[in-house]
Amino acid sequence: MSDRIIKTVDAPQGLEGQGFFAGKLDDLVGLARANSLWPLPFATSCCGIEFMATMASHYDLARFGAERLSFSARQADVLMVMGTIAKKMAPVVKQVYLQMAEPRWVIAVGACASSGGVFDTYSVLQGIDRIIPVDVYVPGCPPRPEQILDGFMEIQELAKSEQRRRRESPEYKALLSSYGIE
Fold it and tell me: What is the DSSP letter of 124?
């Protein structure tokens, strides 16, 4: 009779190898993170106009939990880089990224932020992934608001599924050190 009382509970499917309660806590924290992201828009050109349309009432990014745009890096979760980034501006983008608290995510919106776009010149950074790690790329020149919403929903999925201790892993620290970030 006492053997039945002491019986342990098996972890649900997909949570093997970690404690039942730790797995459920990761799910709860991920859900909270995904539905309360505060984006920091770093817009320099036409992609910024499309982002403004995304925030307007017709598309309404606020329905995804991004009600509050943060123009302070220390209070933001998602850095949304939109438009052409000149090489002189690259240290500023990197500094803004470094001022953000962990966990932080980055969206490269549009062809210019993703790959330099049509500006294959000496003065334009050929993709922000040369200075900071990018989580989601939104294609287009400029991308439609629907594409920006799709990119934001991808960030929500990343935030929801990311384990709390991922940012302390050696792989993540190696990624940051490859960008010169300690």
Answer: B
pTM equals: 0.80
Q: What is the pLDDT of residues 31-88, one digit of tens each?
A: 888 888 899 999 888 888 888 888 888 888 888 877 788 888 899 999 999 989 999 9
For residues 122 and 144, give the distance between their C-alpha atoms in angstroms, rounded to a whole number.
Answer: 28
Would the annotation count 117 as a binding residue? no
The model's pLDDT over 168-178, given as tens digits with 9 standing for 90+, comes to: 888 888 888 88
Phi-psi region of 121 (alpha: psi -120 to 50; beta: other; left: phi over 0): beta
| CATH at 85 | 3.40.50.12280
Kind and range of the H or E element at 21?
Answer: helix 20-34
The answer as to whether 22 is a domain residue is: no
Known binding residue 142? Answer is: no
Q: Is residue 141 marked as binding?
A: yes
Q: How many domains does the chain have?
A: 1
Is residue 23 included in any domain, yes or no?
no
112 annotated as ligand-binding = yes
Lookup: tokens for 167:
């940012």
